[in-house]
Amino acid sequence: MDSRDKHQTEKNHHLIQAMCHAIDGIIQVLREERNMRYHLLAACLAIIMSILLHISAMEWLWILLAIFVVFTSEFLNTVTEAVTDLIVDHHYELNVKKAKDVAAGGVLISAIFSVLVGLIIFIPRILAIIR
């Protein structure tokens, strides 16, 4: 049996098959990427705060947007790292460094966006409780 018999090399033929591969990818990122676990923890905290502070439907949309923007950017950063490492076989290359730095910068920008969204939504509600 050669490797073509053990691993899928063609497109998914069914939606269920595609969904299983997508779930495998999510699990792999959560297992292997420390920063993704931090993002997941922050998302859980934001959701708990949102529930406790009874935010509006519009505010929920902003919180969920912020969460999924960070998740998406972290996934794209992970893809960038994996593909560039594959191309250069884990050797230093200036263009690979640039690609990785830009992808990481995208994650940072999305995280800053998320923090700002959280501050704008949560600070007034927390201050109202404290007063």
From TrEMBL:
It comes from the Bacteria. It is found in: Cell membrane. ATP binds at residues 33, 81, 100-101. It is an enzyme of class 2 (transferase). It holds the Pfam family DAGK_prokar. The keyword Signal does not apply. Mn(2+), Zn(2+), Cd(2+) and Co(2+) support activity to lesser extents. Gene3D superfamilies: 1.10.287.3610. Keywords: ATP-binding, Cell membrane, Kinase, Lipid biosynthesis, Lipid metabolism, Magnesium, Membrane, Metal-binding, Nucleotide-binding, Phospholipid biosynthesis, Phospholipid metabolism, Transferase, Transmembrane, Transmembrane helix. Substrate binds at residue 74. The chain crosses the membrane at residues 40-71, 102-123. InterPro entries: DAGK, DAGK_sf, UDPK. The keyword Nucleotide-binding applies. GO terms for cellular component: plasma membrane. GO terms for molecular function: ATP binding; ATP-dependent diacylglycerol kinase activity; metal ion binding. Its cofactor is Mg(2+). A divalent metal cation binds at residues 33, 81. One of its GO terms (biological process) is phospholipid biosynthetic process. The active site is at residue 74. It is a multi-pass membrane protein. Signal peptide: none annotated. Its EC number is 2.7.1.107. Belongs to the bacterial diacylglycerol kinase family. This is Prokaryotic diacylglycerol kinase. It comes from Limosilactobacillus reuteri MM4-1A. The lineage of its organism: Bacteria, Bacillati, Bacillota, Bacilli, Lactobacillales. The gene is dgkA.
